[in-house]
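## tool: complex_structure
## caller: assistant
## args:
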Amino acid sequence: MTDFFAISIATDYMLLALILTQIPIIFIYATRMYCRMYSHFALSRNADWVADHPEFTRHINYEKVMRLFAYIISAMSFTSIGYYILQNPAPNNIVPMLILPQLAWLAGMLLYSVALHFKVTRAIPLPDRRSTKLEDQSLAAYVPHWVVALSYVGLLLAVGVYLWALASGALPTGLATARLVGLGGIIAIGTGVLVFALRRKHSELEFMFGKNGRKIEVRGTVAVLYFGVLVGLMSILGDFYGIGLFEDAFFFIVISFFVQVSMAVMCIKQKAKLENHKSATR
Amino acid sequence: MEIEINVSDATPVYTQLVTQIIAGVLSGSLESGCSLPSIRQLADNLDLNHNTVAKAYKLLESQRIIQTAGRKGTFIHPNALNNAANNNLQTAEFQLENLLTSLRDKGVHNRDLINLLKDQVNRIKG
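## result:
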């Protein structure tokens, strides 16, 4: 009992640390860098036209709104930590404190990029001269189909096990439903990110790391799908056989840590690239 | 390989695509078996209508420069280099035949035509 308590407290500290570190890394620094990069992508549609129209600055307004939104999320996240610490005993809602601001930020970035696409990118006329690399961007060009298919088989098997548990009553309905929602979320988000990585014209990682950027992005997403399979397997072992190797928060801790470190590295790289590009076009 | 099109050019865009892909094959930038982007992807990247790219791919396929393998994608034909060279030779033969016929119709003698042709070939060589 004492050991479980110690693990739980350590997990809470890790979650609290991640909630704190995601404020400067994601909500402040990454927002700034991503907005700059997306504006750069939008304006690169026709750089000559943009240079001839210095009055075309509407992208700055969208950037300001997004940054303001990110500051609001930061303030709310910070307030939630204070509220959590002041409460005694502390309520068990620390995972939502980590996840909800991330989801809000993602939704904000999604809305920002949609607004940027329709109100900025599409407002810039297409140039007569257009160029692109004649490279295959299909899934098979980055990772064999069977590797991706295998991850989906694993995830669907886990979903199948919980569906059976739900139907047969082998697990409490609440627990089985929560697991199904979690696995469904991994499948939906992983598929969405994979399709997004393959289909979009500009890839952030391609901008940062050159030719191999999109490959890193696609393979990283497939790795997340396999991580989902691992989590599914851990959950099955814990729920059906009582082998609790990791807590539920393990998934969120690992993913958040990975996201924060990769975002910090990417933003540093982005900054250098954007500055190089700026000095080259000056 | 980088591909560049100019929509304000008098040459149709699909012809520009075909010409550049053939040039890529002849220069060795596009080797046989090399995979090409899908029609949708190339059209999106160049902000073109999908039908324009589809027309170019269809033409390249009829000239046996590329081949489509269903869901696996589009690839450079195994004999693309030879086929491109043969196609160029056929086009040259056809164009030369038309030119010579039209010049003969205008009264230019065969001997003069041969001399002119030799001079032109020597000029290109020189």
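## assistant note: The first strand of chain B starts at residue 2 and ends at 6. Chain B is about 60% helix and 10% strand. Handing back to user.
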